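Practice problem: predict the structure.
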Amino acid sequence: MKLLTTIFAFCLVFVVNGQNLSTSSKKAEKFFNNATTLFQQGENSAAIEDLEKALKADGGFLEAMLLMADIYNETKADSLQIVYLEKALALESEHTAKINYVLGNASFRIGEYQKALDAYQAFINLASSNHPFYENAQAKIQDCQFAISLYKRAVEMDAVSLGDKVNSEYNDYWPSLTVDGKILVFTRLNPASGAASLRYQEDFYMSANEQGVWLESQPMQAINTPNNEGAQSISADGKLLFFTACSRSDGYGSCDIYYSRNRSGRWSIPQNAGEPVNSGAWESQPSISANGEYLYFATNRKGGKGGMDIWRCRLNGFSSSGGPQWSEPENLGDSINTTGNETSPFIHADGTTLYFASDTHPGLGGSDIFFARLTGDSCWQKPENMGYPINTHNDEQGLIVNAAGLTAYFASDRPGSQGLDLYQFELYPAVRPTPVSYVQGRVFDDSTRQALCAHIELIDLDSNELVAKTESCWELGEFLMCLPIGKEYAFNVSKDGYLFHSENFALKQLREVEDPILLDIPLSAIEIGKATVLRNIFFESGKYTLLSQSKAELDKLVEFLGNNSQVNIEIGGHTDSIGSAEMNQELSENRARSVYDYLVENGVEQGRLSFYGYGFTVPVATNETEQGRAENRRTEFKIISTK
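Answer:
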């Protein structure tokens, strides 16, 4: 909250009311009156000169000290403001309580939290409980105690510059990264070309990473204009760029969110994201989730909690022209948003860890970076401050984290930089997101090889919950889906008129993002004789009891048969060659029967189903290796007829 610190609270009121000043020097009074006029006219430098003369004439001139402090407050010279406030305190006047309060504010702003705490406590001791600043001072005491505790629990942070291939002599900031960590997009504040006077404009630059080295950054000419483009977010696969542009002819408000698509390496002409993402208010700082399902952004639109709030929209689908279409925006609620300002959201590729800036959650002053985790569809845990020295008494914002969850990127003007430069540092464990790998590939017709726009789902096999969904609707049927490490997933690809395809991703152990899963997925049209393997049907070893992790795949098969009522299928069970032919034939038939029974119990007509145990007579791989035997132990279904 902006607090009253102007000199009008201290000394100009005496002039207006004709009361006596604390000086008996006519010379000092003359310089003070001149300074007062100059201050009111915005001539701060000249006012300071006259105040210095006034104080030279009378070193104990209280009102001159307070006016000097107020000028330095207005010019954001906090350290000099503190000097004159402390001189004024030494005089012990009737304004001591109020001066202590302002001293607390100034000290807090420059990170001198113990001095600020002492000043606020002195104010509390001197002021009455009905003083208009009393409750604020009590709150600020808690802020000081919190800040001191963060300093005492300083976290490790070793920031390393991204180097002169990325950073320039100008301000470089607002980084964004693809999930593979190979493409970095950022904003640079360049001198405007052809400008008669020195004017700066924001443009986008891109740098590629080859074998851990950032290459020379290049301007994104297809998107940059003579106006400002800033605060961008590149999609996990590098196919979409969302960004902010202001005061454009097709805008809805002061600043809007736009997007551009990357087709065969060329960025399209940017399009306004439209309603309901944009409104008549200010929308900015987008962050697209790795699965493309949610677009997070900051806005001051109606219905918020305070100043700037963080909202998100959910992807409803794509228009005929290929543009994303979004749901009505959802405010992230009281856990995240406050009566102050929450900005610069970054949703990590795990889909559940949000990093953002706030000037109201408990922090070190200005805006600090916080993180919060999503525990349900829209239930956010209480945000936690990232700690010192990630946060300082200055403004921090615009932090992003790579897919592995180990490295953060941010902009800073720390010593050794050329203005704002981009840095990276290793996150300490408590604030890391879930590590993420990814699966990338394309979906196509197995006969024509033509690209297919298919629906793709990722399901947690332990909870049977949908983790992520996407579509292969880009050119060439391409898709990319992030895979949070630590669980086992069913991966299903489906399209009307085709058999669905399933994969099993066992990611209980860490899989490096540098080692993604790459898949070509051919889908078979629904035709007699076509078959597909159900890779997420599981049984107890040597038995035919279905495990609970099979439910997602079984329900997918029920759904497929419900959507294709003309299709009749055979459930086929297969084993490896360990054991006798008789034992394996019986086991395979019983397993096929278990799937058959589940389908019938869940509403599929018996007349549409049959089952058969093939034992080890139809291997798809060698039985000489464990991997081959695992591939041979399978359940599949085959189209028998299409009535």
